[in-house]
Amino acid sequence: MRSPSRVGLVHLSLALFAVALLAKSASVQLVQRSRWTASAQRQQSVESTIPAPRGDILDALGETMAQSRETVKLEVAPQDVRDLRKLRNALIRAGVPPDWAVRATDRKRKWVTLPGRYVALDVAPIIAMRGVHSTSMIERSYSFSEGTRRIVGRVDENNAPVDGIELALDTLLRGTPGAVTTMRDGHGRRFESPQSPRRAPVQGNTVVLTINHELQEIAERALGDAVAKMGAEGGDVVVVDPANGEVLAMASRRQDPRATASTALTEPYEPGSTLKPFIAATLLEKKRARESDVVKTFGGQWEVNGRVISDEHPAASYSLADVIRFSSNIGIVQFATRLSAREEYEALRDFGFGTPTGVPYPVEASGTLREPKRWSKQSANSLAMGYEIAVTPLQLAAAYVAIANGGELLEPTLVKEVRAPDGRVLYQHKRRVVRRVLSPDVSRRVRKMLLDVVEEGGTAKLADLQTFTLAGKTGTARRTVHGRYAAGQHIPTFVGLFPAEQPQFVILVKLDNPRGAYYGGLTAAPVTKAVLEAALASRHASLDRGTLAASQQKAHVDSAQVRAAAVAAARTTAESLATAPARESARALAAERAARDTMGTTPFVAMLPAPRKARVVVSSPRAVPDVRGLSLREAAHVLHAAGFHVQLDGGTTVGTAPAAGALVTPGTVVHLAGTR
Amino acid sequence: MARKVGGSGRLRLALVLLGFVLTASVVVLRRTYGIAGARELQAMETKRSGLIAERRRLESEIRIASSRAHLQPIAEERLQMHVPTENQVVYLRRDSGAAHAKP
After folding, report:
1. Which of A33, A399, A642, B99 is deepest in the core (most CB within 10 A)?
2. CA A281, A285, A290, A294: dihedral to nearest 10 degrees?
3. Which residue out of A65, A193, A244, A470 would a mutagenesis test of the B interface target, given it has the greatest number of B Cβ atoms within 10 Å?
């Protein structure tokens, strides 16, 4: 037998190798196909989550108070950077702190994560550099004042709500995250393939608050000025619309920077004499007293159950109306004896004291109102004077709303509307009556008594307006610190109903421990007046000017005095504007002449411009066009022309979501499915 | 005869190889263009998001700059303006119902 040649052996080896190769190929392609396909998928594509932006928070005028925007986080691998100096300079120009810019360009470091978030456009040249890596993040930005933040709340760096409306309405505000499959190229760079399935993130719902940012800023300014001027430790201002219970402004201020919550909702206090009108109203409602009924007040000092009660305005006797007007402690205690303990407790409970108002806020306090079985001998008297009870400023304002609107206790609200991203209204606040606590006649009579408080001789003369009527009640309570009354510390309060005849505002001002004068009539009442004056001069302060114009009284102005003030003001203005002496004198004369000419018999007539129409929060929805039968390009063009943003979603069937014909707000993202 | 068959076979083989190379080139080209297009699309999408973020930041800055809290101190300090007292404001009634609308 002939032995195989070397060439034959080589051929045989090659043939065996070819067979082995084919066998392996067959094994990979046929037997292990799924395993290798999955492995390739893992290497070439990555499934990632697209964070959903939280919904916007708007104020009652449609101004944005909080919104989400896309930013980037920057990370640097210094060892991969080609031109370190160029990167360092670019980072500093983009606003990165210099020490961090140095750190990010230190070759000894492997990886540096820069602090802060940046708008992608601002750092686009940096992102394009080798060794710089960017990650898309959603950032929450807030407009307006720090005071507004107490209501709106905030989110942490992971977009998780921390407090305020952000926390209370988190389920409505947070959106639905999307998902996308990104491909990797040979260099490991990621890109989104149009063929890959994509689930777009859905933005959270838009929440429209009842807060009017203009009024809120007025309240914050007035409160800030008062706290600074009086050396108070803080204070709260609450403005509520008595017609529907909407909270229009809620300003809070505290010395302690850790107090970031809206203390008008979270910190109950003893309201003092501001509680007296509820006792008086209950007496009138139960026909146990009339305004003209008189009780003895013993010259301002009276001992009852071993406790001496005193009045600031001593008198031998007071009628019920005068008890409210002069805030007589002895008088209200005398009148309160006409109510049983149970009746007094139930009356205060019916006005909403001792229970949370129900506004959507994470930590609203319920206050304290003890049941009669837990009362001491002094409790009935103390309650009549506003002690042994703790209320939040909002609870107190909500109770006064009942006096202002004819006797209905309304549920106060902070949320006016909730809208889906496509503009659909999911929730709209409707006036909700908790219960009727007074008859319309009694509430009118109580308002009359409160009107006297602000007029000549009353305790709140400093809140009096010359051309409008204001009703209200002062209160000055001793302040408790760690459960005990602190010597020389007080909490003055004033609650006003403006205007007195048909109140449009219930406004509560409370100050914490002001230095010097501490009576509510001397401290909180002037703040109320400052808020009202600024609101009256504002075009967007939620006031019905038509009704106000009808009720405006003629001002009792000393024209000579006003004219002199105007001329002096004109001179001052001219002096501040002019530079050269000649120009100064010419301008001063011109200003003086103008001031004299402008003033006729009625000085300072301020012609207000035409009222701006209410801002349209939602633009009128329009129908999504029918794009069936069109190519993807044509469909996208048609949808763009109709005012919608288009998001391509892939898929096999051409169609839109929302479907053709659905009414959607312009600017909404319409998802377009299809492959061609 | 055998030479003719051999020549025809090589031609066929060459054509098959050419076809394979052309097909492979088309596939590679299409994929290259596809990837470039996808990358460009992503860059534009990123730019759009950036522009939206920039617009929102500018709107926010405008809101803060035009807010009462920002303007009032400036008007008071630089222009000696002041908030009018209530008796300095006179509401003039209008015939149209618009004046009755709450802002």
Report:
1. A399
2. -60
3. A193
